[in-house]
Each structure stands twice: as C-alpha cells, then as structure tokens.
Specification:
The chain is mainly β. It has one domain. The longest helix has 4 residues. GO terms for molecular function: carbohydrate binding. InterPro entries: PP2-like, PP2-like/Lectin. Pfam families: PP2.
C-alpha cells in the first residue's frame, strides 16, 4: 500500500501490485504512481509518502527503493 499525505493534511492510500515488475527484470527502473496533490501559490508545506506492508499470505521480499522523483503532472 502506498500512502501520500499532502501539505494540507489530506491522506491518499492506494494499492499497487508489483508482481508484474519482475517480468521486466531487476535492472530496469519501474515507475509507480504515488498520488497527486496541489500546492497553492506562495504556500509551503510538508509532503509525506510511504510504502506500507499489507497483511496477506504471500511472502514479500526483494523490493529495493533506490530513489524517488516528485514532478509536475503536466
């Protein structure tokens, strides 16, 4: 589960299935959309994001987060 907390305190959660990323290989960058938020002009704030474990019966391992890019939508 991915969690995004925007500067106004809004929390957005979403799930992402990463099983299909194994097909493309371990040496390939994969892009996962974390969420969207807007910041009004002349405003400042803190953005928080995280990856949370979800309880299920499938084993999880081997995920390496090497970097994060925050960029404009358009």
């Amino acid at each position: 589960m991915l969690l995004l907390v925007s500067p106004d305190g809004r929390r957005e959660k979403r799930s992402e299935m990463v099983d299909s990323y194994r097909v493309r290989g371990a040496d390939v960058w994969h892009e996962i959309r974390g969420g969207e938020f807007r910041v009004p002009a002349n405003a400042a704030g803190k953005v928080e994001f995280g990856m949370l474990d979800v309880e299920n019966q499938r084993w999880k391992g081997g995920l390496l987060l090497a970097g994060v890019t925050i960029r404009p939508k358009n």
